[in-house]
TrEMBL record:
One of its GO terms (cellular component) is mitochondrial inner membrane. This is Mitochondrial FAD carrier protein FLX1. InterPro entries: MCP, MCP_dom_sf, MCP_transmembrane, SLC25A32-like. It comes from Cyphellophora attinorum. SUPFAM superfamilies: Mitochondrial carrier.
């Protein structure tokens, strides 16, 4: 029997904000541990500014990393894992907390009944606001992560870890260096907005079907996997180019900085450069390994998130009603 995961038992001794944060933290950590090597492949392809065909690039990058980098092959495939764990765990925890708070605020502001569904505009507003705030707060982590995943540990100037990376950026590039790629990141918030809109709408549709079939309103793990996959494919395909632009800007350094990155140019100039030198396919470099990573990653993330959100309050005795 599938576990029901659609609701958190109420009332509970646990603060809802704590439940959301713990569920997001667990979800981000689980997905990162399982799929980090695909993140390395995706990042290497995104920052590659050559005009070479990339049909077999994923295999080529994997072979090069596997054979030539790191003290061991496993270490090479998991370079930057600590940074990715911090970024994804903190990012998802923060996002889910802010997203839940945003939905509650919208419901209160618009005077909705507790059981009333939010509209598409409501979901877009909540996901966009929470996405933009969490993106700004976590951007320094992603700059370090991109630079670590796009270089070998033996490259000159390569960062050994998150702390060393942030310190080096602050010393050599200033605070501004921690926010390379923020503009395409903020544009990319549309990905999360489209994803959560599709996810929430699919969940609502599935609940209605379950009710019509006499199964109640609760969703199963299978429902979550299907809805997550469809939503991620939809949002990921539409908004993918921003990831290429973000990765290249995050891999950039200011002039005179000794780091194996790319020249520092603005967003518009970068778009023109990609279009001129690589054509439309340049904006989709790494999309295949990205989809191989993000679809199962999203499934793991939301399975863990929904189950922790459902199960955590079960560990504590519910507060008796009146």
């Amino acid at each position: 029997m599938s576990m029901s995961i659609s609701t958190v038992p109420q009332p509970s001794r646990l603060n809802p904000a704590f439940v959301e944060t713990a569920a997001g933290l667990s979800a981000g950590a689980a997905a990162t541990l399982l799929l980090h090597p695909l993140d390395i492949i995706k990042t290497r392809l995104q920052v590659d500014s050559s005009s070479h065909p990339f049909i077999n690039s994923s295999r080529t990058v994997l072979r090069d990393v596997w054979r030539n980098e790191g003290p061991t092959r496993l270490a090479a495939l998991y370079r930057g894992l600590n940074v990715n764990l911090v970024g994804n765990s903190a990012g998802w925890a923060l996002y889910f907390l802010l997203y839940d708070r945003a939905k509650r605020t919208i419901k209160s502001y618009r005077g909705y009944a507790p059981s009333q569904e939010l509209t598409s505009i409501d979901y877009l507003t909540a996901s966009t606001a929470s996405g933009m705030l969490s993106a700004v707060l976590t951007n320094p982590i992603w700059v370090v992560k991109t630079r670590m995943l796009s270089t070998a540990a033996t490259d000159e100037g390569a960062y050994p870890g998150l702390y060393q990376g942030v310190r080096s950026i602050l010393q050599k590039e200033g605070v501004r260096g921690c926010f390379h790629g923020l503009s395409p990141t903020l544009i990319g918030v549309s990905h999360g907005s489209l994803y959560f809109l599709a996810y929430e709408k699919l969940n609502t549709w599935r609940r209605k079907r379950n009710v019509a079939q006499g199964k109640g309103t609760e969703l199963s793990n299978r429902d979550t996997i299907i809805n997550t996959s469809l939503s991620k494919l939809f949002a990921g395909t539409i908004t993918y180019p921003h990831q290429v632009l973000r990765a290249r800007m995050q891999a950039q350094t200011t002039p005179g900085v000794k780091y194996p990155g790319q020249p520092n140019i603005g967003l518009i100039a970068l778009i023109k450069s990609v279009w001129r030198n690589e054509g439309a396919p340049g904006f989709y470099k790494g999309m295949f390994p990205n989809l191989l990573r993000v679809v199962p990653s999203a499934c793991v993330t939301f399975l863990v998130y929904e189950n922790v959100k459902w199960g955590l309050p079960q560990l504590f005795e519910a507060v008796p009603g009146p």
